[in-house]
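User: Predict the structure for this protein chain, please.
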Amino acid sequence: MFHMPLSFMWVPLIAYACLVGAWYVSNRYFDYEEDRISQGPEANGGKELLTISIVAFLVGLLLLITARSPVLPYLIFALLMLLYSCPISLFGKKRKLKQLLIVKNVYAAGLWHLTYASVLYFYTPLSLHTNFFLIYRSTFPFFLIMFMFEVLWNIRDMKGDKVVGTHTIPNTFPPIVAQIVMGVSLAIAAWCMCSYRVNIFVLGEFVFLFGLLFLASPKRSRWFFHSAIYVLCLFNITLALTL
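Assistant: Here is the predicted structure, written as structure tokens:
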């Protein structure tokens, strides 16, 4: 167990927020065909998204350079995020990691988790008091939360994913299976959080997320799914302050 120092470095946090934002926006650009099928007129795949993604990446990089903070972890994560969407040769065929059943969810959630733990280790004084493994283990609930979110977003995109050959839990198994997977993941995360200084805000977030996963449907508006992102941001801040 460790406690978040009050001297947390906000510049790296903003920089990595830019990187994560760039990843999300670039995925919206490259997944336009899937989104167009799943979300109809709400989908957006204009070239301005790619421009925004590049600008966000460069802004984050510039912030780190200006603050004289480590840049290498940032570049490594940018490469790993790019690998998620780029075709690679598997069994003689070119596939994307994001098209592989369950692998896509584990990879994406693991990358989110690794990024979160690395920000705490490389850019805060925590590295002076503990090791990376302890930070990684202590933030494991974040991996479970992100895994749940990955499956949730697959529900939003299940129609488009199926058309382009992307295998996900929602479009491969009956809907109840996806809800069970999300519920179990969220329940384990809540159980892990019991060893932390859980407050009323954390409990409220878990209650909201449990309700969200049972209401999830491809017919829901994209704003339904975006609301989960705002709760996730709040969860990140609360988790960092309660570790």
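Residues 1-8 have pLDDT under 50 and may be disordered.
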